[in-house]
Amino acid sequence: MNLAIFLEQILNGLITGSMYALIGSGIALVYGTMRVLNLAHGEFYMLGGYFTFYLIVQIGLSPLLAIPLAVAIAFCLGALIQKLTIEYLIVRENWAFTTIAATLGLSIVLQNAALLMFGEQFNTVPYYVQGVMSIGDIRLPWQRVLIFVVALATIAGMTWLLKYTRLGWSIRATSQDRDAAQVVGIPVRRIYMICFGLAAALGALAAAMLAPINAINPWAGIPILLKGFVVVILGGLGSFPGAIIGGLFLGVVEAVGVQLTSSEWRDVISFTLMIAVIWWRPWGVFGTK
Amino acid sequence: MSTDPLMLVVEDVSVLYGNYQVLWDVSMQAHAGQVVAVLGPNGSGKSTILKAIMGLTPVRSGRVIFNGEDITNRPAHQMIELGMSMVLERRRLFTGMTVYENVMLGAYHKSIQKHAKERLEWVESLFPIIAERRDQIAGKMSGGEQQMVAIARALMSRPKLLLMDEPYLGLTPRIVNQIADIIRKVNAEGIAVIFNEQNVKLSFGISNYGYLLESGRVVLNGTGEEMMNSDVIRRVYLGE
Q1: Residue B21: strand pairing partners
Q2: pTM metric for this prediction
Q3: Which residues span the domain enclosing B219?
Q4: First-last CA distance in chain B
Q5: Does residue B14 fall inside a structural domain?
Q6: Going by DSSP bridges, is the β-strand pair B61-66/B6-17 parallel, antiparallel, or unpaired?
Q7: Is there a domain that residue A286 lies in?
Q8: Tell me, what's the ipTM?
Q9: Residue B33, phi then psi, degrees to nearest 5
Q10: CATH of the domain at B48
Q11: Do B105 and A173 touch (CB under 8 A)?
Q12: For the segment A199-234, what is each residue's pLDDT rounded down to a tens digit?
């Protein structure tokens, strides 16, 4: 294999991986704070894709306006859905397991709602940027470069938020000890709502960035959820930094694996990796026991 | 009895975990500036009563009144604003965060935020370790050190009443004495303290008043001296 192709594959892997990181970090944020495995996370990705599609293609907004708007709508929808469904289940003692059934049901409802509203056909949006970047022998479409830049900026922004803002401190405190967080005056139930909204927003952003490449239909969230699980299992369930590293790592492993085999093997590679991790290091490759 | 104003009144409080009743019509009081000990064996409900006061566990019947205001079943995160703070059992620090972050989270509430700087100086004067270990990850400290950080975090709001759930649990005798000194120091700052503990002798070294709980009911209450001289305590708890 020549070096340029190899480097190109690594870069492509990092780009895909940055999207996996956005998806996985949403799952991690929700699990980390409220110990809820959100099986409807993929549907926020799917809805984010539809919001983007409608705002850009049907209404004709510029992507610069449409993408933030789609993300904001997803945030509000996520927070609202949390308030109306999961909120009632997690406040009850020993009812946490019910959230698995509830989010699975939510996922089915949202898929069928999308089917009724938007139909089953695949929808895409035009590329946000045209052309191909070339450095030496490495060639990458600008669209992919843009995806990577937006993902990295978002990850940096989220890291800053968690580390330095009042909201971030309260999210970290809530995820480490819910009772202690309440005792120091953190309204944990509002934090849950905000985290669910943030997770939905991160999923929607991934969909908005991928919409020109990955067509959206009502079931677009399912493979995304599965990849998100691989990411959080690699990174250690509930760890935000773990999900970022896990996402990038998965992207690169898939890209290199596909280069060595063929593209049909992509999912085989990632799920084999996941099973191996569950077998050998159930707390995650990058997590701690 | 103290002549200071009544600060906390617990009136016939019952608490159930599922169908299992852990507190039966528990009543107790604390005056401003007092140190009150809640005694009892494991499973007597002595932790539950503190959690019920703080709003961490729902009260099924009865009332909790703090400075004349009915605070029964008010969510825990609102207690800080009223002047009540709590050190949870087994410290419960945010173990992945630094000492500084832990202590500053004690000043999370908007009403305290503006005083955060002076409060930090105050708790640092009470616990020099807070300044010395500022950037250490809290989970990496020893049990006694963690307890100090936990108390410092609870004091950032400069509460009128500090609840301490088993402050001596899992600590060596030397550290237990240090923590007892700290409770005295905190009390000397005019802060009332209610703590629970199994060891009767340890408790009455520092408290002015005590309650003995057994199977979720108050079976005895009185001043430290009265408690130490009571037959039940002498027979069952001091083995005389």
Answers
A1: B16
A2: 0.91
A3: 1-83+196-240
A4: 27
A5: yes
A6: antiparallel
A7: no
A8: 0.90
A9: 80, 0
A10: 3.40.50.300
A11: yes
A12: 999 999 999 999 999 999 999 999 999 999 999 999
